[in-house]
């Protein structure tokens, strides 16, 4: 139970980081043009 919860938390954090990274790339792209 605890391990699955930990994995869920970890995957959510990774997903969040990926989304932020994408937003940064997109915003940088917009500013570049």
How would you summarize what this structure contains?
With 33 residues, the protein is mainly alpha-helical. Helix content is 94%, strand content 0%. The chain has one domain.
Helix content: over 70%
Task: Report the C-alpha radius of gyration, rounded.
Answer: 14 Å
The total domain count is: 1
Q: What's the mean pLDDT score?
A: 91
> Strand share of the residues?
under 5%
Class per helix and strand makeup? mainly alpha
DSSP E strands, number = 0
The coarse overall form would be rod-shaped
**How would you sum up the major sheet?**
none
Q: What is the N-to-C order of secondary-structure elements (H for helix, E for strand)?
A: H
* Unreliable segments of 5+ consecutive residues: none
Distance between the termini: 48 Å
Query: Count of DSSP helices?
Result: 1
